[in-house]
Design a protein that fits this description.
The complex is a heterodimer of chains A (206) and B (201). With 206 residues, chain A is α+β, with helices and mostly antiparallel strands. In chain A, 27% of the residues lie in helices and 42% in strands. Chain B is α+β, with helices and mostly antiparallel strands and 201 residues long. Chain B is globular and about 50 Å long.
C-alpha cells in the first residue's frame, strides 16, 4: 500500500510538472502573441534574480537587481545584491560600473552577452523565432510556454548549448535559462515587470 | 681597495637570503607542518567578487572555489553576468583546464594562475625553517620547488610570500578572517603587472 501511494505521488508530481510538446498551431499562436505584445512594447522595467548553477556547488550563486529596456536596443542590467555592478549595452558598446569603477571593456562578457541581449531584445520585438540561427522546440508547462533555442552556430554552441525561455500567457518573458555545454547554467527570473513605463534616456547611463 | 670591499659587501647583502635581508630572527620550532585552512571545508561554497588588474586592463567577475575531496579542488571564474571565463580542476599534483575562453587561452597566463591558485588551496606544508619578526611567526616552506614564507600572527595565517633569488615574487595577503574563512584576499605580483583582489560575498 505504501509503495502504491509513493508511486501515485511520483506519478502525480511528474504529471503536474510535465512539459508537453506544443502542436504547430499552438506554437503559431504563441509566436503571434509574442509578436503582438512586442509591437506595443516601448519600454520594460523589471526586477530580476540570477541563479548561477555550477554542478559541483551545494547552492546556486544568487545575485539580483533591475533590468531596464527601451526600444530599439537600450538595455541595462543593474545588480544590487550582493554587490553593486551595472552593465549598459548602448551603441554597440558595453559600459560597466563596478562598484564605482567605470570601464567600457570587459573580457568574456561582451560577445556572449551581446548575443543574449540581442535574443532578449528580439524576444521583446517578437522576431526571435529565427529558424536560421536556432533549432527551436516548443513546450507547454503548467500555464506557461517554454521554448528551447539551440544555436546552430558551432562556435556559439561551444559556450551556450541552449536558451530556454519561459513566456507567460500574455507573451512576456518571465525566465531565461542559458545552458552551457557542460550543463552548468545561468537562470534569470524576472518579477515586478512593468511595460511602457516612461524611461528617460538619462537612466541609460553608467 | 676600500671601494672593492664595499662593493663586495653590497654584493653579498644584495644576494643574501630573503630572511636575512628582511632581518628575520631564526627560531627553534617543534612545528613540522603548517596549515592553510582557507579553502579546506568540503561543506562550504567559497564565493568571492573578484577584480583582476592585468597590465592596463581591469575586469571583474565572480571567483568560486570548491573543495570536492581530499586534495581535489575546483576553481571557476565567471563574469558577473554568469558567463564562464575559466574552470580549473586541481587533483593532487594534476591540473586540468575544464574550460577557458579563447581570449584567455594563453599558456603563460594559465601557468601563472595555476601557480597562484595552487598556493591558495595547498592545505598542509612541511616547515623547513621558522623565524620571527615583530609579532609574526614565519615558516619557510616549498611549493613546486619554490620557497614560500608563511606569516602568522596569533596562529592565524595572514600572508604568504613566494620568493625567487632572494626577492619577493608574489605576495598573498589575507585579511578579515573569521575562523577558517578569509573575507579578503589580495594577490600581487612583482615581476608581472597582475593583481587579483577577492572579496567574499
Amino acid at each position: 500500500m505504501h509503495n502504491i501511494t509513493i508511486s501515485l505521488l511520483l506519478f502525480l508530481t511528474c504529471f503536474i510538472h510535465a512539459q508537453t510538446p506544443m502542436s504547430t498551431s499552438e506554437a503559431n499562436i504563441l509566436k503571434a502573441t509574442v509578436k503582438e505584445r512586442a509591437a506595443i512594447t516601448k519600454t520594460i522595467s523589471s526586477d530580476f534574480i540570477q541563479y548561477k548553477h555550477l554542478d559541483f556547488l551545494d547552492n546556486d550563486i544568487e545575485t539580483s537587481g533591475k533590468l531596464i529596456f527601451k526600444t530599439p536596443d537600450l538595455i541595462k542590467w543593474e545588480y544590487m545584491k550582493p554587490f553593486k555592478y551595472s552593465v549598459l549595452f548602448k551603441d554597440e558598446k558595453l559600459y560597466i560600473n563596478d562598484e564605482g569603477k567605470k570601464s567600457n571593456v570587459n573580457i568574456g562578457s561582451n560577445r556572449l552577452f551581446k548575443q543574449l541581449n540581442t535574443l532578449i531584445i528580439n524576444s521583446v520585438k517578437g522576431d526571435m523565432f529565427d529558424e536560421v540561427e536556432f533549432s527551436i522546440e516548443y513546450f507547454k508547462k503548467d500555464n506557461y510556454s517554454l521554448v528551447y533555442f539551440s544555436p546552430k552556430d558551432k562556435k556559439f554552441a561551444k559556450y551556450i548549448k541552449a536558451f530556454h525561455i519561459t513566456f507567460n500567457t500574455e507573451g512576456d518573458v518571465i525566465e531565461v535559462k542559458m545552458i552551457e555545454s557542460s550543463e552548468d547554467y545561468t537562470k534569470i527570473v524576472f518579477s515586478n515587470k512593468a511595460l511602457n513605463k516612461p524611461l528617460e534616456d538619462a537612466l541609460f547611463t553608467n | 681597495m676600500r671601494y672593492l670591499l664595499i662593493s663586495f659587501c653590497c654584493f653579498f647583502v644584495a644576494c643574501g637570503s630573503f630572511p636575512n635581508k628582511q632581518q628575520f630572527q631564526i627560531e627553534n620550532t617543534s612545528k613540522t607542518t603548517i596549515h592553510n585552512p582557507y579553502f579546506s571545508d568540503e561543506a562550504k561554497d567559497y564565493i568571492y567578487k573578484a577584480t583582476i588588474d592585468v597590465y592596463k586592463k581591469s575586469f571583474g567577475g565572480i571567483f568560486i572555489v570548491k573543495k570536492i575531496g581530499n586534495q581535489h579542488h575546483r576553481i571557476v571564474f565567471t563574469t558577473e553576468l554568469g558567463n564562464k571565463i575559466f574552470d580549473f580542476s586541481f587533483i593532487k599534483d594534476e591540473f586540468k583546464v575544464n574550460f577557458i575562453l579563447d581570449e584567455m587561452n594563453k599558456s603563460i597566463l594559465i601557468n601563472i594562475l595555476k601557480k597562484d591558485f595552487k598556493v591558495l588551496i595547498y592545505e598542509v606544508l612541511n616547515v623547513h625553517k621558522a623565524y620571527s619578526f615583530d609579532s609574526s611567526k614565519i615558516y619557510e616552506t616549498e611549493i613546486n620547488n619554490k620557497k614560500h614564507f608563511y606569516f602568522t600572527a596569533n596562529n592565524q595565517l595572514n600572508k604568504i610570500i613566494r620568493v625567487g633569488n632572494g626577492k619577493e615574487k608574489v605576495v598573498f595577503l589575507f585579511s578579515e578572517m573569521n575562523d577558517f574563512v578569509t573575507n579578503n584576499i589580495e594577490i600581487s605580483h612583482f615581476n608581472v603587472k597582475l593583481n587579483i583582489k577577492l572579496k567574499s560575498i
